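Lecture 7 notes: from sequence to structure.

We start with a single chain of 308 residues. Read the sequence below before looking at the structure.
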Amino acid sequence: MEIENSTLVTEFILVGLTQSRNIQLLVFVLVFIFYLIILPGNFLIILTIRSDPGLTAPLYFFLGNLAFLDASYSFIVAPRMLVDFLSEKKVISYRGCITQLFFLHFLGGGEGLLLVVMAFDRYIAICRPLHYSTVMNPRACYVLLLTQWLGGFVHSIIQVALILRLPFCGPNRLDNFFCDVPQVIKLACTDTFVVELLMVFNSGLLTLICFLGLLASYTVILCHVHASASEGKSKALSTCTTHIIIILLMFGPAIFIYTRPFRALPADKVVSFFHTVVFPLMNPVIYTLRNQEVKSSMRRILSQHMVC
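Now the structure, written as tokens:
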């Protein structure tokens, strides 16, 4: 069946994470247990922030959205990967592949921009505390959140638009366990040099700029915190340190995958696995474990439900 962009391929065969059946079963069990433990924790974070009147500060508003983004992001790749572990033939349709790719970059790009917004929030709170309530008012928070979602959509739609213009006439074996730009481009029946450059610019360069900008901003914030003698110094240091950990987990693998020419490396699948499956669920949990207010509120909610 021929489509407008001369695409003849109607489905892709996923090579998978590994060919070893024993390793597949081991990863399946570990990821399944990990999801049973961590995923409810992400939803508990969202419930806690929404139900506790004491957690209305912009910091917690953005943390709740981070938990929502990461929980949503984890549903793009992991469920299908778990099903494929139990299947002999790992196949995804052309349209299914494009849909997966769109949401992967929509939510991933949105999360990157959300981390930029959270860095801006911490900068105003720590370096300009007298202006914080004025700058980070509820309306500004919703505008920043809308901008984050819009930015993720624009980033993703550019990726999809470039992919849709490519002809796919075979082969159709995708050397990965999900659909992503570097592997899909390599299957196109045309010269993809210019498209690869555009993809690297849209994903890689923007990711690197955001990463370096975030590190620079938190360096400024940490220098300001060290120079101050306020009572909240330790809390500010803890919050910023947690943000930096999340930034490294989010941007480190993305830089490795998208800022170089699309050449396959042995570590690609392992990095992609942690980037798309493990780290998204861990980010909000890491943050929560270092935030006393959220932990206390979660304990109260859990105790109330246990009493009921």
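The mean pLDDT is 86. Keep this in mind for problem set 3.
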